[in-house]
Amino acid sequence: MRVPLPWLLEYCAPALDVRAIEERLTMTGTKVEAVLRQGVASAEGFVVGRVLSAERHPDADRLKVCTVDTGAAEPATIVCGAPNVDAGQTVAVAKPGAVLPDGTELSRRKLRGVVSDGMILSEDELALTAGERAPGILVLDGQMLDAELAPGAPLAELLPIATDVLELEITPNRPDCLGVYGVARELHAATGAPLSEPPWAADPGSEGDLAAARVVVECPDLCPRFTARVFEGVTIGPSPLWLRARLAAAGQRSINNVVDITNYVMLLTGQPLHAFDLDRVAGAGLVVRRAGEGEEVQTLDGQTRSLDGEMVVIDDAGGPTSIAGVMGGARSEVEPGTTRVLMEVATWSGPNIHRTSWALGLRSEASGRFEKGLQPEQCMHAQAVAARLMVELCGATLLPGTIDVGGAAGERQVIRLRQERVGSLLGLQVPRERQAEILRALDFGTKDAGDDGGGSAGLDVSVPPLRRQDVTREVDLIEEVARIEGLEQLPATLPARRGAAGRLTHPQRVRRAAEDALAGRGLREIVGWSFTEPSLLDRLQLPADHDMRAVVAIENPLSDGQSIMRPTLLGSLLDAARHNVARNGPDVAIFESGTIYRALPPGDAGPLGTHTHEHHALAALLHGRLAAGSWRDGGEQGADFFTAKALLESLLGRLHVPFTVERASWPFLHPGRGATVHADAHLLGFIGEVHPRVCESWDLGRTAVFAVDLGKAAVAAPEVRAFAPFGAFPPLRQDIAVTLPDGVPAADVLALVREAGGPELEDVRIFDIYTGEQVGEGRRSLALALQFRAHDRTLTDEDVTPRRERIVGALATIGGELRA
Predict the structure, then answer these.
(1) Residue 88 Cα distances to 69, 81, 85, 662, 708, angstroms
(2) Is pLDDT of 455 > 50?
(3) What is the pTM assigned to this prediction?
């Protein structure tokens, strides 16, 4: 919300500069996002001028050469192209050296051979309007400005040509601050500066029946209060300059005096209101009701919108005229010929307005306020201010009486604020008198509470109507005291532990260890969106029956590209790799740790009763070189299946998770270069090189990936790992070479050797592979390094020979033959 500082200072003017005001408001909870400048950066060089003469330019039909009194010793000659400039006018002048709002610095210059000493300005050239193009120059009127217009007088003393504007972020629980006066009350409480009386204190209207119109509310649950007043003899025209300038500074466009009054009052009080042309209201009566299914209404933006039965409309004898609380209708809008105006100010159900606005895709200044929960008492605040302005600016006559449906005032809640409770929660003793001062500044009523035997019990605080939904408990009052007294003054204390262990859970420790293991290996972590696009499933070549196709659809997606929850981390990893490769970063080693989502079959329910299964996954991607080549290795090692497998082994070894890798086919992995990862017979994830067609879809070359379910890894990982002492006796190593059929996986060979070798076989690994004529076609030779160790003695060859023979015999069962 934009609040022009001069407007704010009319109601509360502390002796502070704009930056100090910004800091004080922000520190008390009304955050100032930015301080903007409306108009010129400096008022220097902008003065009042009087046109002494305006003659046609000798060389240009559309230009005039004006002689202008600017208060200097000699009149200035200014060339002007405005059609309405004429002798005798009092105008706004920018002298040479003045800087316009768009940054243009004026100088003496020739226009068609005549030297111009400045510029006669229009409203938009002074940024007094919100983007509208002015048809001519601004002609100043002494009565309009209520000031003397002496030539040479600084223009800033008459017009808001240089205005600071506070851009505020108002939290949803503070709709009372959606008006200038509400912010002024906050500034009053934060600084102690005097607060002027409310602008609605004097109401020119009256209560009683209003014969000129009638109102029926059929859904009081959605419209707690509806008020209306009628004005006759209304003259529609442009608003005075001060009003147009104030609306422009607040980001509002000027329409005409009646519409501008409704916008001005809304900005001042926070309460939206709407003006109907009473002569265009069929039957001179309004009915507030729920809309019919499929009922249509044409709104002020010219669009015809279809409604449903949960929305509220205001209609007359001719049908719906507006969507309640969101936007008025075109059929009864105020137009240049309007002479009778019905001013409507109502309170609407905030959740209903929010639903209506969202369902129609239509947000307005009014709906943004109503959906935060305005109070019925605000209706008459807006009516009082609007009535005064309609009389003053439109020459209107206010008819006696006010339609007020549901206007009973609600009771003010009284909350006990205990002195000792304030001190115990804040850790700071705030005197009771200071508490009362703060609360009264915020419009709360206070009186001393009864004695509980130990002195004053504190305060009995009555909550103002505009804070009814926000302040409901004692702790809410303590928050009000704390934020105004100064949160920065509260001491820093640790909360009571009460036996809290303060340690991570086992799955959390596993997750951190896994992420640290990959980061320690030089991979960089990325964070992708949890949302993705449905086309990802086709790009990964997933068949129709694949379990990753069971996606969770989003009911209200931000876009088509973010309409489902991601079923895998591969999409964001491939996106990140493509982004880097396209920007001359071909060597990519990245990982992501995040949640993936799958829809459960009908009838199944997740742990929270939902039909969605989600788990935390960890995935890594390698592309390009792993390290630059050097004179030592003579080449560059690229990412492939085996580098990904080595990385996975390092990761699961860090977690102490025993695992196996088995060849398997995955749609998005290269045929013959993909595998599944198992732990304790449970599927842990997959590993392999990405299918070439999938790589082509992301404009990538050879890419290796793996992914594991960290939840299952945490189940397989031991929570406590006991220390095993190093052996006191030396190991005994023996090497054997065995020929095997090509189809026997090396992992099966190692598993068989470990089982046959017994407990003394400490380690086995493959250190060489040979294929050729000496082993025969269809066979290969594996060289195995066997390491034996006993914990009670030094092993000899005689001790190891039986174990070695058992190993050779076991290998024979899978076609293995010992090479000489």
Answers:
(1) 10, 17, 9, 96, 84
(2) no
(3) 0.69
